[in-house]
Design a protein that fits this description.
38% helix; 15 helices; 438 residues; 6-stranded mixed β-sheet; alpha/beta
């Protein structure tokens, strides 16, 4: 029987409807001094924060302890956190902003920064946060939270993606799981051919996983979009190499054919060959070394290696993605909102929040306050430094997926050559670039 497991993000999306919006007990306004003390009552500024659930009760588990420390340090600011459902979160934010009812702060995602800017809901923070406030962040973490050099949503957590191996299957194929490394495409395809003899898959590649395709292009030493967003590079060799690799793996039966989907509606219900122990490598998130083994104790989970087309190209592991604190352009309490964000961005608070929420913190010092499972820490240490961000990760993300997916499928099914598919994609995408960026 095939077993399935949900990624952390997918699980949260599906269970979001069970989460009740909650105001925190920790957000009670500070008590004013007694009337006979001669002191005037302390004035307070209230800020509203929208967050999205990571636990069964983020109000009590995550934000009550965090805001207890904040209110002790800043008794003049009352922070009220409402835990919102994941479903429809962007649309609700846009509607609230249009109605003048947006929160002061919300928990934003890296892939939607351009839309937040276009909708006019997000405030640039370059003049509000200092270099000292951001000292713990790496360059890629800053890039992922920025657009055209402007910082919008400094991250507090990340999803570190990388590669895992099924150690049991590798052993059966004659490899030592402790030393095996498939860092180049040739090495990967040598493994694929051996796995196919046992009717096992190498990996899975979904034609609607735009992030996975970007990673493949960067493994080939390329970039999909020009730095100024005036054109795309779909007809450049690294992009051709990336789609050629995908077509090759599908044609040889090295990846499941059912993942060659042509629309958004086809994304659900696909079998998980990784957890059914029929797939030798898989792209996994940082906590999967615990979650996957819990889902299938027979899985011998081995931390893999980042990849590149050959030894001349620096390997990459994945895209910097995650959540960050954004301040709405409509906020009438920007100073108080900035004070809260600065507090929550200190290494101690970033690390503490990750412990409470069961997530992975960004930054360097923050990890000193983090207590993950040892395998998760090893996974993050190996893959975190080789994540990338930049123009490819914040340009036409949703549009690229919708335009490219059917053309990738056509190339895989032999209905178009690689070059024909990429030419069609480039024509549509370049028109969108002109419309969006001029």
């Amino acid at each position: 029987m095939k077993q399935t497991v949900l990624s952390r993000r997918k699980f949260l999306q599906l269970t979001a409807g069970l989460t009740v919006t909650s105001a925190l007990a920790a957000c009670v306004a500070p008590t004013a001094p007694a009337a006979d003390s001669g002191d005037a009552a302390m004035a307070t500024t209230t800020i509203d924060i929208w967050a999205y659930p990571r636990t069964e009760n983020d109000g009590d588990i995550v934000y009550a302890p965090l805001n207890e420390g904040f209110h002790a340090a800043h008794p003049d600011i009352m922070a009220q956190v409402e835990v919102q459902p994941w479903g429809g979160r962007r649309e609700k934010l846009y509607a609230a902003a249009a109605a003048g009812e947006a929160p002061d702060i919300w928990d934003a995602t890296t892939d939607t920064v351009p839309a937040y800017i276009t909708k006019g809901v997000i405030l640039g923070l370059d003049d509000l946060l200092s270099a000292e406030d951001l000292a713990d962040f790496g360059d890629a973490e800053i890039d992922a939270a920025s657009m055209d050099g402007v910082l919008y949503m400094p991250l507090f957590e990340a999803e570190v993606n990388g590669i895992a191996y099924n150690g049991g299957l590798l052993s059966e194929l004659g490899y030592d799981p402790a030393t095996a490394a498939f860092g180049t495409w040739d090495e990967l395809h040598e493994l694929a051919a051996k796995a196919a003899e046992n009717n096992w898959y190498l990996e899975n590649l979904s034609t609607f996983n735009w992030g996975e395709f970007l990673v493949t292009v960067h493994e080939a030493g390329g970039q999909v979009y020009s730095d100024d967003r005036t054109t795309s590079n779909f007809l450049e060799q690294p992009v051709i190499d990336a789609l050629t690799r995908w077509v090759t793996e599908y044609e040889n039966g090295w990846v499941p054919l059912e993942y060659a989907i042509g629309s958004v509606d086809e994304q659900g219900g696909l079998p998980d060959y990784w957890l059914s122990l029929e797939q030798v490598t898989g792209r996994r998130e940082d906590a999967a070394c615990v979650q996957d083994v819990e889902a299938n104790p027979d899985l011998e989970y081995v931390i893999g290696h980042p990849r590149s087309i050959d030894s001349s190209v620096t390997p990459v592991s994945g895209i910097v993605s995650g959540q960050g604190w954004a301040i709405t352009s409509q906020s009438d309490a920007v100073d108080a909102a900035v004070t809260w964000v600065k507090y929550m961005l200190t290494p101690e608070q970033v690390g503490t929040r990750a412990n409470l929420a069961g997530t992975t913190p960004v930054g360097n010092e923050a990890k000193g306050f983090w207590n993950p499972a040892p395998c998760t820490a090893e996974y993050v240490d190996r893959f975190g430094p080789l994540l990338f961000a930049g123009v490819d990760t914040n340009t036409l993300w949703q549009e690229s997926k919708v335009v490219a997916g059917p053309q990738f499928q056509a190339a895989i099914l032999g209905q178009a050559t690689v070059e024909e598919a990429l030419e069609t994609i480039k024509t549509e995408i370049d028109a969108l670039l002109l419309e969006q960026y001029g």
